[in-house]
Specification:
By secondary structure, the protein is mostly beta strands. It has two helices and 20 strands. Strand 3 and strand 4 form a beta hairpin.
């Protein structure tokens, strides 16, 4: 049985691109079908109750992964599928806000992915429709998991929100959620400037004001940015180049709205900004 991997470079079967010649592709599929079966990746999903907060209720989506299985962040990287949360069957729930703990950058046959190993809890902030009535949170989760095989999966879970027995576990992952950043200001790691690369029309230069291990640049639909490469600065204030690997035919940096996540050694920030007419902001 062969499993497809959804890649930004096309559909691949264990790393083979769709541009590969047809005969080698058929032979590869035959070899896969006759190879010894490996254990499929697996994951368990649960909803956790984190208790009441000021204006909302705290909850969490826990995914526990087998072995070296991984699952994906909201922007999965070079391949994979982000999780999709459906709360429509919930009772007395007006709104659910999902928070995203900082991801790992994980080597993959298709490049690198952004995601999680072992266990992740996505913290939630749940708003009730009627504070005088009980709330039941119901989730249908569509997501993908990958080890040797990559498979899309679905799961259902439910929890009645009340006293919050899982508050500590949820708060531990909420502490990993990047803080809201402001251009040129704290918290660290902070963004100082972003603008077009004078040497490359398809790249942006990102200047930071604090140590950064990695950064992730997200654009609107049709845009995909690759891994960041450090090109200068100091350890205390590195400078990076990020390539736009995909963009609309008439896409321009001018006026583009971006979300930039900076991952520092101990903290992370997330800054949303809109580039000016010159494709820059500083």
């Amino acid at each position: 049985m062969a499993f497809m991997r959804m890649s930004r470079r096309g559909i691949s079967i264990f790393g083979l691109s769709r541009q590969a010649p047809m005969i080698p592709l058929i032979l590869t599929l035959l070899l896969i079908q006759n190879a010894p079966l490996r254990a499929e990746p697996s994951a368990a999903v649960a909803l956790l109750d984190g208790g009441a907060e000021a204006q909302t209720h705290s909850a969490g989506v826990e995914i526990t992964l087998s072995g070296q299985t991984k699952t994906y962040w909201r922007m999965p990287g070079d391949s994979g599928l982000p999780p999709v949360f459906d709360w429509s069957a919930s009772e007395n729930v007006a709104r659910v806000a999902v928070e995203w703990p900082r991801p790992e950058r994980i080597a993959d046959p298709s490049g690198t992915i952004l995601g999680y190993h072992t266990r992740v809890i996505f913290p939630l902030r749940v708003t009730t429709s009627d504070a005088a009535k009980p709330m039941t949170l119901r989730l249908k989760l569509d997501f993908a998991i990958c080890e040797d095989l990559c498979v899309p999966v679905s799961a259902n879970a439910a929890v009645k929100l009340g006293a919050g027995p899982a508050r500590a576990a949820i708060d531990a992952f909420r502490a990993r959620v990047p803080q809201a950043g402001t251009l040129g200001q704290g918290p660290d790691p902070r963004l100082v400037a972003i603008g077009p690369d004078p040497a490359r029309a398809d790249a942006l230069i990102v200047t930071t004001g604090a140590p950064v291990d990695d950064l992730i640049l997200e654009g609107p639909k049709g845009w995909y940015f690759g891994d960041a490469s450090r090109i200068g600065g100091t350890d205390a204030a590195p400078i990076f180049r990020v390539l736009a690997l995909e963009k609309p035919t008439k896409g321009r940096f001018a006026g583009l709205t971006l979300t930039l996540t900076l991952l520092g050694p101990t903290s992370a920030t997330e800054t949303t900004l809109t580039l000016d007419a010159d494709g820059a902001i500083r």
